[in-house]
Amino acid sequence: MLMSTILIIEQILNGLQSGIMLFLMAAGLTLIFGVMGLINLAHGSLYMIGAFAAAAVAGLTGSFVLALIAAMAAAALAGVLVEMLVIRRLYATDHLDQVLATFALILIFSEGTRWAFGSFPLFLDIPDYLSGPVTLPCGIQYPFYRLVLICVGLLVAVGLGLLITQTRLGVQIRAGENDREMIAALGVDISKLYTLVFALGAALAGLAGALVGAIQSVQVGMGEPVLILAFVVIVIGGIGSIKGALIGALLVGLTDTLGGVFLPQLFKLFMEPSAAQTSGSALASMSIYILMGAVLIWRPTGLFGART
Amino acid sequence: MKLKSLILSTALAALASGASAESIKVGMITTLSGGGAGLGIDVRDGFMLAIGQSDRTDIEVVIEDDQRKPDVAVQLADKMIQSEKVDVMTGIIWSNLAMAVIPSATAQGKFYLSPNAGPSALAGKACHENYFNVAWQNDNLHEAAGAYASSVGYKNSFILAPNYPAGQDALTGYKRMYEGELAGQIFTKLGQTDYAAEIAQIRASGADSVFFFLPGGMGISFLKQYADSGVDLPVVGPAFSFDQGILQAVGDAALGVINTSQWNKDIDNATNAAFVETFQVEYGRLPSLYASQGFDTANLLISALETAHPDDADAFRAALKAANFDSTRGDFEFGPNHHPIQDIYAREVIKEGDVYTNKIIGVALENRGDAYAADCSF
What we know:
By secondary structure, chain A is mainly alpha-helical. Chain A has helices at 5-36, 43-61, 64-85, 95-117, 144-166, 168-178, 180-185, 190-213, 223-237, 242-268, 273-298; strands at residues 133-135, 141-143. In chain A, helix 2 packs across helix 9 and helix 10 (242-268) packs antiparallel against helix 11.
C-alpha cells in the first residue's frame, strides 16, 4: 500500500475534520461541566435530536440551511426543557446521581425518538452545492463538504472564544467556572446563566449532529460513541477550557485517524501482513486512551485545566 | 426489555374445533431496539405475517428484544428454555449473538431455525442436527459477489468489512470465488461511522473495484461518504448494505451499485408475489430480504408441524429437513448440514418512481451450498 504524500495529507485533513466535529460536542460538554459542575451523559442524545430534527426539516422543506437552524433550535429547546425539569435538581447532588439521572435521559430520548420516527435510519443528505470533491493545491481530491465542516468548526471555535473573552456572558461563565457561590453572592442570576449555558452546549451538540448526520447515518444511538470521545477530549483538554476542548479534540481526531492508518503500516515493517494489520488496528483503537493517559500523567488536570 | 407475547390460541377455540390442542411455543429472540433494529423488525414482521396467514391457531410466539447484546441474548435464551419452555427458537440477527446462544440451546434439545445469522462454525465443525438455517450461510452472498466481480472482469479489488465473525466470513467468502488480485484489505471497527480514512486508502491503492460488507448504519455512512469523495470505482457488495430498509436512507449514492442476494421482490413465483403484496398491505412498506427470511422460516415451521410435533424430535427433524413448503425463492432444499442450497442473484439498485429498490440482473451463483458442509457431521 502506498504511503504517498497525498495519502498523508488527506488523512491529516480527515483527522482535522473529525477533530473539529468532536470539538462542537466537547465545547458544550466542557462548558456544562466547568460552569455547572454537571456530568451530562445526555449530551449524546442532544446530538441525536439535532440530527433527527435536521432530517425531518430537510425532508419537509428541502433546505439544508433551514435544517441546520432547526437542528440547533430543537437541541437547544430540548436542552432548556431538560435543564429546567431534570438538571436543576441535580446541581447539589453527587456526580454519581447526575450520571444516573442523565443516563436515564439517554434511554428516554432514545426510545422516544424511536417512537416518534420509527426504527429505520432517516435520510439526510448534503445539499448539491456542497457535494462532490474539489481539487486542492497539492493535487489532492478532497470532499468539499468535509472542508466546509472544518471551516464551520473553526468559525464556531472563534465565535466561542470571542464570546468567552469579550462579552459579559463570557465573564460570567469564566467567573462561574472559578467560583460558583461567589458570583451568586455578587448578584448574578445563576439559574438563568445555567439554563443559557446548557442551551448553548445543546445547540452546539445539535449542530454537530446535523452536520455529521448528513454524511453518516441518522439513527437512534448515534450520539453515544461521540459522547464517549467527547469525554476523552475534555479530560485531555482540561475541564472548563474551550481552548483545551479545541486542542484536545484536534489531538484526538488526528491520533485516531492517523493511528488507524499508519500503525498497521508501521507494524508491517517487522511483522507479516495479517498479524501487522490485526495488532496495528488493535493498538490504533487504544491510541486515544493511551494519549489521554499520557496527558494525564504529564498534566493531571488536562492540558489547559485549572492548575492545582 | 419489553415482553411481547402474542397468544394465538385459546382453550375455547381448541375445545370448539375439537382438534388436538397440543400447542407449540416458539421463542423469538431478535433485535428490536438500537441501531440495528430494522433487521429484527423485518424478520419479526415477515415471520408474524406467515403465522397470521396460516390457518393454525396453536402456535404461540414469544418475542423478546436482545438489544444486539450477546449477554442479554443469553439471558433471554435461558429464560425461554427454562421458564417459558419453548419448543422451537428463532430470530437472532447477528452472528456473535448466534454463537453465544445457539450451541447451548441446541445442546439442550431445542430446535433452532435461523432466519438470518449463518456463522461458518455452525455450518461446519460446530454444526448440530437441531440447527437449521433458512437464510444462507454467512459466506454465500459474499461468494456470489466475488463470482460476479470475476465474471465482469474486475482484477484488483479493494475489500473491507467490520472486524467481527460475519465480517471475517464476508472477506473469506469473497476471496473464495474472486479470481483477481487484492489492492487492499481492511477490517474496520464494528459500529464505525467515519470512513474518510478508508476511502483515502482506496483512492491511493490503485484498485479497479471495491467490495464492502457494512450492514446497517455503517453501510449508509460509507456509501454517502464514498459517493461524495470523488473515488469513482465500481462497487459490489452483499444485499446487507443495500436492503430495502437502508436504501431510502442512502438515496442516490447507492444507485447503480450491484449487490448479491438470495431473494428479491421480483423473483417470479406466486408465493413471492403474494408475500410482497400482503406485506405492503399489512405493514405499509416494501419487504426486505430479512422479511422474506422471516416469512420463509415461519412457513418452514408450519410445514413441519403438519407432519410432526417437536416433542417427537426425530420425526420433527425429518419434517424440517424435508422443507416441504412454498418458499418466496421458489424451490427450497436443505444441504446435508441443514443450510440451504439455492441460487444467489446479482441485483442492481434502481429508482422506481420515488422509491429506491433492487432489480435482478442475473444469477451470480447457481445451486450454491456452502464451503463448510464437508466439515459437518452429526
